[in-house]
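Q: Structure for this?
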Amino acid sequence: MANTVIGSSIVIDGEISGDEDLVIQGTVKGKISLKESLYVEGSGVVEADIETQNVEIAGRVTGNIVASDKVELKTDCRVVGDIKAPRILIADGASFKGNVDMDMKER
Amino acid sequence: MATGETGIIGKGIVIKGNLTGGGDLVIEGRVEGQIALKNHLTIESTGKVQADIRAEELTINGEASGNIDASTRVAINASAKVAGDIKAPRIVIEDGAVFNGSIEMDVRLPDDI
Amino acid sequence: MATPKELSGSNDVNNTVVGPSILISGRLTGDEDLTVRGRVEGELTLSRTLIVEPSGVVKANVAVRNAIVSGVVVGNINATESVELTREGRMVGDIHAPRVIIVDGASFRGRVDMGDVEPGRLPSQRPVVARPAAPVTRPSTAPARPSAPPARPTTPPPARPTAPVATTRPAPAPTVTMPARPASKPLPPPPPPRVEPRPVAPPVEPASAEPPTPFALGAGAKKKVVVKKKTR
C-alpha cells in the first residue's frame, strides 16, 4: 500500500480526499476525508474537519473529527474540537478540549 | 526517405528566399526566407536559419528562428537555439538546447481533466 | 515509520508522497520534494523538486525548483532550474524555466520560455540588447556558437571566409563580404522573424537594399532556389 505522506515542511490549504492511509507530518488546513486511516504525527498540524475511518493523533488537531471506527489521541497530542466515533481512546498525557460522542445511532 | 540524395548548403552559403525541394537537406550555412521540404531537414551547428520551415522531419543543431511545421518529428539538440512556434506530432528538446516559443503536439489527457 | 525531526530531516526520508487514490485540492506549499501518484489540484509551490509519476495528475499552477513529469500536468510550470517531460509525460500549459527537456514520447502543448539564457544568442530576436557591445564588428550573420557569447565577434568571421570560399567559390570577394554585411545588417535585424505572426513573409527586404554581391544567391530574395543535390 503506497502510503501518502505529507512531509513536515509541507503546507496544504484546501481539501484532501482519498481511499488510502494518510500520514501528516506537516500542516493541513481545510478538510480531510478518507476511507482509511489518518495519522497525524508529532510534527503534524491539522486545522481541518476530519472524516475518516480511523484517526491516530500525536500532533495537533483543531477541528471536528468524525470517524467510522476509532479515534486515538496519543500522548502529547493536542486536540481541540468535537469527536464522534464508536471507539475513542485518549492516552495519558493527551490534551483534549471538546465534546465526545460515541453514540453512532445513525449508522 | 531513404533516397540517399542529400542536398547540402555549405557553410559559406547564404540563401535568401524560398527553398523548396524533395530530398533531404543539410544546412550548414545561412538561410533566410521560407523552407518547404518533403523530407528531412538538418540544420547543422554552423547553420543559421531565419525562416518558416515545413518539412517531414527536422533536426536542429544550430540556430533557427521562425515557425516550424513538421509532419513527423522535430529534434532540438543540445547545441541548438530555436525561437518560434513548433507544430509536430513528436518534438524532442535535449538538455542544453535553448528554445523559446510554443509547442503544439497532440496531448491525450485523461477524461476527467 | 520514521519520525522525522522537523525540517532538518527533510533530505531523504521525509519526502512527501501523494498516493494514487489521494486528491488534494487547494494550495500546497513546502520545502521538500513532492511525489505525486494521485491528484493535486489548485496551486503548488515547492522550493524543491516536484515529481509527477505516471499515475499522477497535477492540475495546478506550479512553482518549483525542478519538475519531472511522467504523468499529467495541466497548468503552468514555473521552475527556477529545470523542467523535464519524460517519455510518459503529458502536459498542457506553459513552461518557464532555464532548462527544459522534452524527451521523445512526451507530449506537450503550450509555450516554452527559457528566458535570456545567453544574452544576445538570437540576434534576430533580441538584437537591441545584444548589440551595444560590438555593434560594427559583429556580423549578425555569424553562426552563433553556443559557447561564450563574447567569443562570437572573433570566431565566426574567420570561419566563414575560409571554408566557403575555398570550396564553393573563386576566392576574390570574400573579404569584402564580411565588412559589407555587418554594415548593412544592423538596421534590418528588428524586422526579421518575429516569432508571433505565422504567415510572416521573408522579412529580408531591408537587407536587400544593399545586396551582398559576393554571394550570388543572396541577391534574389524572391526567386526560388533549387537545391543542388549530391549523392552521399
